[in-house]
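User: Please predict the structure of the protein below. I'd like the answer in structure-token form so I can feed it into my own downstream comparison script.

Assistant: Understood. Taking the following sequence of 139 residues as input:
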Amino acid sequence: MQTKTKAAATVEVTEANFDSIVGSDAGAGIVLLDFWASWCGPCRAFAPVFEAAARRHPGVVFGKIDTEAEPGLAAAFRITAIPTLAVMRDGILLTAAPGALPAAALDDLIRRVQAVDMDEVRRELAPPAPARAQAGGQR
């Protein structure tokens, strides 16, 4: 009997478990979110590619979000076409793009996300420092 480890399987992501799986406090690192629906042909075609990538990249979380069951998450991510793949790292959305990717492109995307300097991303996202008070007091 063959068993899957938790890290190698895709996980169902819902509003109830989203923060524990994806949030920056969850320590998830890289999370790929596949927004899909059962009636969507391209979604069904992409599912085995996504599952196989999950087995090849056990250190990455592969989450599936059923847009029919989770319209709030679909709205929060502004999903207008499916399948859409959202890529997060350390709780920060790096990219989201509609369309099914072939296996090689998905692997390449994961390698590029692993190479991202997250300290630089956080610096870019940080609010600007408040302006210093001008010399000479108030106007």
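That's the full token string. Residues 7 and 58 are 5 Å apart (CA to CA).
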